[in-house]
Each structure stands twice: as structure tokens, then as C-alpha cells.
Amino acid sequence: EGVFDRADEIGGDRMESMKVSQRGCPNCNMTCGNVVKDVEGMASELDYENVAMLGSNIGLGDLEKVAFLNRMADEYGIDTISLGNSIGFAMESSERSLLKDRVDWGDFESAKRLVDDIAHKRELGATLSLGVKRASEILDQESMRWALHVKGLEVSAYDCHFAPGMALAYATSPIGAHHKDAWVIAWEVTTDRSNYGESKVDKVIELQRIRGGMFEFFTTCRLPWVEVGLELDWYPRFFEATTGIKLSLSEMFRIADRIYSLIRAFWIREYGSDWNPALDIPPPRWFEDPPSKGSVKGSTLDRESYANMLSIYYRKRGWNEEGIPKRETLEALGMSYVSSEIHNP
Which pLDDT score is estimated for 228? Predict the structure, then answer.
């Protein structure tokens, strides 16, 4: 539909009213984890992604129940983004009569049972535990339309019917549909969302260099830069103070480009003849099924415009039309030894 009528019941104001404490990583003063009590009175640490994926994504508008599902996932060691996506996939499959058992939208008891069955690989849970890509292949070809993933990784809590930049970020992330590498949506909603042009590609690559490259090899959190506003120029100083190695920001971005091309080369080698640029295309739903409600009602991604944007992305990355890093690109990045792994002699 594109909107959730009970969003206020699980939103920030509701969470703030229920919060009993905050948690953060060791030695971090940001404490970005919001701790609330679930339906059993137990502590559960919430943030945007787990509330969205285990709440509105599955039609559940009770924050205490969302917190309970989140605690179940934490205790089982299950990723809440993939879990919520998989439960939503099951609920839509049930709605379309592809499952023998009913799993209704917003049904807390069904969701609890699915979490338990996924963890123990029982019945439908055994199929869902494989992720929505494999589940859709097993269940029914038609279900691939609502199996929201890229390269097998489930999409997180950002709808891209009217966000081509975020769609490109999802599609070109080295690990599949993850927002961590280029959280471009926050910038995109403040600009021309219908733009598929070069400026949007530049922003995706810029954020991939910072978030998916520099912060990754720093093994540091993105939030002090995103939320607190630490200047990027500070990071080379932090790095030198910690390691004794002096690098400029541009040198760090070059390392980020090395990381992206190296990971891309790895996957191309591993996919072998199965590699296809179609792997860099977002889920069909964003092209084919427009939301029926809300501010983006009727919107879809345009396939031709997206294909052109992806071509621009490849060119700027120094990759060929198949999305494969060119020899000269690898050489310029000091990785000529990688060429023999992905190019014929």
C-alpha cells in the first residue's frame, strides 16, 4: 500500500514514552539503542530498522509486541531485517493463497510462531530460513515479485518506488541490499527524487566511498559522522593518532575504491559464467507494483532510466558495460594482479 495507518503507535514518540533506558557500544556516549519493555515485561533494545521490519512491514502496530519479536530474534541470533522481510514475504504469500496455512498481516501469534520455526528450521520456517530469494524459488515463481532482495540479501526498511538513488545504492552494494554502504535516502528525499542523472550517481559513489569504504576499513561507526556531524577531515587525524600512518582523505577514498573493485572482482570470479549485470538491478516490485496510498501513490522506478543510471555508475567506477572492473582500472588502483582472476589472457 505504501503507508501504515498505525505508524504513530510504533513511532518515535511512542518509543520515547516507553523507553526505560538507552544502550550503546562500549565507550560510546551516543547510546543509540532504545530499551523498552515488551509484552512480557522484558527489556528489548530497539532502533529504526527492527521496528520498521518487525512492525509496519508485517502490519504490526503494537510496540510492545514488536519489542517481543525483536527480543526473540536477539536471543536466537537472527538478523531482524532479514527476519522481518521474510515474515512479510510469508504473509503476502498467504494473502495470495500460496501457503497451506494462513499467516495474516499483523497477526502477532503467527509472527511469533514463524520466528520460532525459522530458528528451528521447522515446516514453513525451514524454507524461510533460507532467505526470501531461495524461498521464492522453492515456493512459486510468481512469489519472486514480492521477494524483496538484491543478490540474495533482503532489503531493509527503505521503499524505493520513488527513490532511484537509494535503489542504485541497494543494487550495487557489494553484499546485496544493505543501506550501510550508501544511505542516500536521507539526502535524496530533500532533492529531486525523480532525477536519475549523473549527480545522483555521484552522491551514491561518494557515500559508498565514505560509508562502505573508509568507515569499513577504519572499522568505525558511521553515526558520529551522520548524527553528530564530525567533519570528514578529522578522520585522517584519528587514523594517524591510532596507527601512526599518515593518509590524506583522497588517499583514503582511493583505498575505498580499491575495496569496491576488489570485492566486485571477487564476486565476478565466484559467479563465473553466471555473472550478469541483472544482479545490479533492484527487485521487480519497485518497477511493476506502484503503492496504492500515500505521497508516492502510483510511483514506480523506470527501467530505461535506471539502466542508464547503472551505466553511468559503471563508467564512473571504471567498470565495463557488464559491471566488471577494467584492466586499466585495476592497474590504476594498484591491483593488476586481480586482472588475471576475471579477465582472459
Answer: 77
